[in-house]
Amino acid sequence: MMPWLLSLLGLVILLLAGDALVKGAVNLSLRLGVPALIVSLTIVAFGTSAPELLISIKAVIDNAPGIALGNVVGSNTANILLVLGIPALLATMHTSECHTRKTYNFMIAASVLFIALAFRGVFDWIAGLVLLGGLAYVLADQFGEACNHRNACKGDDAEEPEGADPDMPRWQIAVFLVLGLIGLPLGASLLVDNATIIATAYGVSDTVIGLTLVAVGTSLPELATTVMAALRRQADVALGNVIGSNMFNLLAIIGIASLVGPIDVDPAFLRLDLWVMLGASLLLIPFVYLGRDITRIWGIALSALYALYLVVVLS
């Protein structure tokens, strides 16, 4: 029972530390005069994915590649089927009003690139550089679009990035940074170490633990964000959150982790999990391209598909 409790504790520490790091880094950057636009596109994006990144790096160091890859592949699948499915059960998400085609195309391209590199059998430094090159291209494109949007909206108040507080004192910024920098490695260590113990005790692979326990845990922030967005009828936030998170997971997390050490690809990923991830991504076509809303019926279907996937993985 103790490994389960310690895994849960590690997950809670990760989520809290990631949030603290984002708040501290955003407010420090703005105090130093870094434009809010740059902060939104870089620090917030990296900071909100810090838990997944630290888990993958720790897993590579501990020679548990299944957790490193399962964390990313499982999170991407959960983000679409679970994170979009559950909120749709509560309220219809009017995604027909969203304009996410370009970002969605980037996500599909990142997924195809990731799968192609996986068939090399290992994510080494070469694959890492390719993924990070893709990330740099996407960030440059998004930065250009954001600049054009800001220029088109001259005179409007600039939207502050998530976590910005102009009145936050310096000591509080320092506390947030320290808590984030200490909590992230501590939480990652607790979660990965105890998830590995659980896998050994139950006779399952670290791949299965990565695809289930770790992946669902690290998808909880996206789930909370999407539920609130659905209730507030902010479908663009919900869909954009999922698409952006998935793209960042593939390009940044494995890209950086593979520079720490090689990540061997379990053949099970090539047989099933990568294709489930891609298939789940393609399920978004009706909402992105055909103007369909994510209704409760779709919510039931997506959630049921995720439950079926878990049954197959755990069987």
From TrEMBL:
Domain Sodium/calcium exchanger membrane region span(s) in chain numbering: 4-136, 174-314
InterPro entries linked: K/Na/Ca-exchanger (IPR004481), NaCa_Exmemb (IPR004837), NCX_ion-bd_dom_sf (IPR044880)
Ranges annotated as spanning the membrane: 34-55, 67-91, 103-123, 173-202, 238-260, 272-290, 297-314
One Pfam family of this chain: Na_Ca_ex
Name of the protein: Calcium/sodium antiporter
Domain of life, source organism: Bacteria
UniProt keyword terms in alphabetical order: Membrane, Transmembrane, Transmembrane helix
Lineage of the species this protein comes from: Bacteria, Pseudomonadati, Pseudomonadota, Alphaproteobacteria, Rhodobacterales
Membrane topology: Multi-pass membrane protein
Cellular localization per UniProt: Membrane
Coiled-coil ranges (or none): none
